[in-house]
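Usage

Read records sequentially. Each one opens with the input sequence:
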Amino acid sequence: MIPAFFGLAGATLDPAERAFFAEVEPAGYILFRRNVVDRAQLRALTDALRALSGRDDVPILIDQEGGRVARLQPPEWPLFPPAERFAQLYQAAPSSAMEAIRLNSLAIALTLREVGINVDCLPLLDVRQPGAHDIIGDRALGGEPMQVSALGRATLQGLREGGVVGVVKHIPGHGRAMADSHLELPVVDADEAALNIDIAPFMTLAAAPMAMTAHVVYTAWDAERCATLSPVVIARIIRGVIGFDGLLMSDDLGMKALAGEFGVRAAGAICAGCDIALHCSGDLAEMQAVVAGLTEIEPAARARLDRAMATIAGSAAAIELAEAMAARDRLLALV
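and closes with the structure output:
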């Protein structure tokens, strides 16, 4: 098994993809809108990935946040609110907001498990900062660490109850960045005192099963390398100060915040301390280049992967999708 999560090109596995994945045995997969047609097609695709891997618990990831980041969309799937909606409710009724977002996350999980998806890249624990780039924006759970932590914890709980592993992101915090890392490399010049605000929710939820790094340079910690590629940030801050010991994956290697050949990017992320290199485009030539930079997954990384997936073993929600959404909507109607 190689330490990579790969995207797919389309709605079915083509023969070249199938042969490639069978040969290299990636640790898991990630799906996007281009991979989705309807429930029957998507379930067939995830079943094919499980059969190909030979692992019932192979991680199959998606970004199903709600709001503007949703790979499964109406009319086939429900529309889920952005995180900001729950942040607003928290200001008036914190307990109601936590219950509402738990129900919302449970409903998301139920829609995902129906089609064979078992990992959601949610929640964002990025603390929203005034004047920062809007790439986080209404995806954030708020601008106060205690609120972000409380809503993030309820999100992880709802996902787990629905049989889906949550991924906290973007560790150690993207909320202060003035640029979109999809397009360029953000550089955050805040001092350590300010950065302590950003890492606080990640510290509170350090027991989360999975986390995704930020392609952001924090000059107070490492002025030369973004977090994904920084042994200093990963060892001293993420594993040390924050205390996160779950599965650590990179953000997408294809984002323009990173430079260089894909094998070099992948090797850099793993050498820096990431357990998994994430590559999303589904481009076969790029994936082949990623593999050229990787070796067999480290035993510690494999153990973290297995431990993360075991957190949902035997999960069976005691509520139906419609019931969860109706209960959520009653709470959201309070403000």
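Summary fields computed downstream for this record:
- The chain has eleven helices and twelve strands.
- The longest helix spans residues 94-114.
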